[in-house]
């Protein structure tokens, strides 16, 4: 499923809305999550999962080709943890 | 870095602000967007949202794990897991946002 198909699926459930509006709704949701993460906030959506930012401290790495040590700067990366309900829906007959 | 938690209510508020639907309908639409993404994933579809992220379902085979407390070996049953891969746009936004708020030197 790509973004236009997501818009299509939501639009099909809302015949009273313009396609354009549904596009704006999907974008507003994704933009809001992006903004939150870039500001260092967490986004918790029960039943789906939680978005957060993980810090990767600076480290000294190595150029794998030359073996030369290189400094790798501190990083912040987006992270997602699947929610319990979605995990259970993916594994309907699992005990855990 | 405010460190707060954004929830469905905040997403609904953003839709209300930007799209101009009622608050109630904004909340319903947010729910439907999340619902459609979840349904696609449960069907086993990958969900690719350009300039945001890709969600994919992967099948994990049975493997042997260990109870970290007792050291006892236990089989981990085969399962389906979802993977999340942030787009470069999202990664850069997050990186820039954090570098800005925490200047070096």
Describe the structure.
The complex is a heterodimer of chains A (about 100) and B (about 100). By secondary structure, chain A is α+β, with helices and mostly antiparallel strands. Chain A has two domains: about 1-40; about 45-95, Irregular (HU Protein, Chain A), CATH 4.10.520. Helix content of chain A is about 40%, strand content about 30%. Chain A contains three helices and five strands, in the order ααβββββα. Chain A has a three-stranded antiparallel beta sheet. Chain A has a two-stranded antiparallel sheet with strand order 3-4. Chain A is elongated, with a radius of gyration of 20 Å. Chain A starts with a helix and ends in a 6-residue tail after the last helix. The mean pLDDT of chain A is about 95. In chain B, the strands form two sheets. A three-stranded antiparallel beta sheet of chain B has the order 2-3-6. A two-stranded antiparallel ribbon of chain B has the order 4-5. Chain B has helices at about 10-20, 25-45, 90-100, and strands at about 5, 45-50, 55-60, 65, 75, 80-85. Chain B is α+β, with helices and mostly antiparallel strands and about 100 residues long. Chain B has two domains: about 1-45, HU Protein, Chain A (Irregular); about 45-105, IHF-like DNA-binding proteins (HU Protein, Chain A, Irregular), CATH 4.10.520. Classes of the chains: A alpha+beta (about 100), B alpha+beta (about 100). At the A-B interface, helix 1, helix 2, strand 1, strand 5 and helix 3 of A face strand 1, helix 1, helix 2, strand 2 and strand 3 of B. Strand 1 (about 40-45) of chain A pairs parallel with strand 1 (about 5) of chain B, so a sheet runs across the interface. Chain A: Pfam families: Bac_DNA_binding. Chain A: This is Integration host factor subunit beta. Chain A: Belongs to the bacterial histone-like protein family.
